[in-house]
């Protein structure tokens, strides 16, 4: 008889956070911050990519990309999404940006949705997820990093 692996108990704080983001907490590993993601993966959160010598405009984006990639790895529990498997959807958070003349890159990632792509997508695998709830949580919980990554701030 096969034994089931017991899933770690999720904190009340995490369950509340998932409810706020309208996602099923049972589908998401408990990762609420970059530091928690680093802890899960055995990475030192104080060691960030060296971007010295680059314009601050680019530094912010590159650091955000690194942090988002680490968080995505922790949320996927170290499993990469197989982009060659055309039978499985891949999910990526999609944002709506409202721009104005004074803020051509938008004032923020104002609303959130998710979408899926198949293996011939132009969406990068590093930030894709095997289910909608993971993509939605990733987009909403880490919105400030997404702003740094996607917008000219």
Q: How is the topology of this model organized?
A:
Elements: H1 12-20, H2 34-41, H3 56-75, E1 90-97, E2 109-117, H4 132-141, H5 143-150
Antiparallel strand pairs: 1-2
Q: How would you sum up the global shape?
A: globular
Radius of gyration: 17 Å
Distance between the termini: 56 Å
Q: How many beta-strand segments? A: 2
Low-confidence stretches are: 107-123
| Overall domain count | 1
Structural class: alpha+beta
Largest sheet: 2 strands, antiparallel
| Strand portion | 5-15%
Secondary-structure element sequence? HHHEEHH
Description:
- The chain is an alpha+beta fold and 153 residues long.
- It has one domain.
- Helix content is 36%, strand content 11%.
- The protein has five helices and two strands; from the N terminus they run αααββαα.
- The protein has helices at residues 12-20, 34-41, 56-75, 132-141, 143-150; strands at 90-97, 109-117.
- A two-stranded antiparallel sheet has the order 1-2.
- Helix 2 crosses helix 3 (56-75).
- It starts with 11 loop residues before the first helix and ends with a helix.
- Residues 107-123 have low confidence and may be disordered.
Would you kindly provide a brief summary of this structure?
The chain has 153 residues and is an alpha+beta fold. It has five helices and two strands; from the N terminus they run αααββαα.
């Amino acid at each position: 008889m096969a034994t089931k692996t017991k899933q770690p108990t999720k904190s009340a704080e995490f369950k509340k956070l998932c409810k706020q983001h309208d996602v099923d907490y049972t589908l998401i590993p408990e990762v609420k911050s970059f530091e928690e993601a680093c802890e899960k993966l055995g990475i030192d959160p104080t060691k960030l990519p060296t971007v010295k010598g680059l314009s601050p405009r680019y530094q912010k984006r590159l650091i955000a990309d690194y942090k988002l990639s680490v968080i995505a790895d922790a949320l996927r529990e170290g499993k990469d999404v197989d982009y060659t498997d055309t039978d499985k959807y891949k999910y990526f958070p999609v944002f709506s940006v409202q721009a104005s003349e004074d803020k051509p890159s938008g004032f923020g990632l104002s609303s959130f949705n998710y979408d899926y792509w198949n293996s011939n997508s132009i969406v990068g695998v590093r930030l894709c997820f095997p289910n909608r709830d993971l993509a939605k949580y990733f987009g909403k919980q880490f919105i400030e990093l997404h702003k740094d990554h996607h917008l000219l701030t």
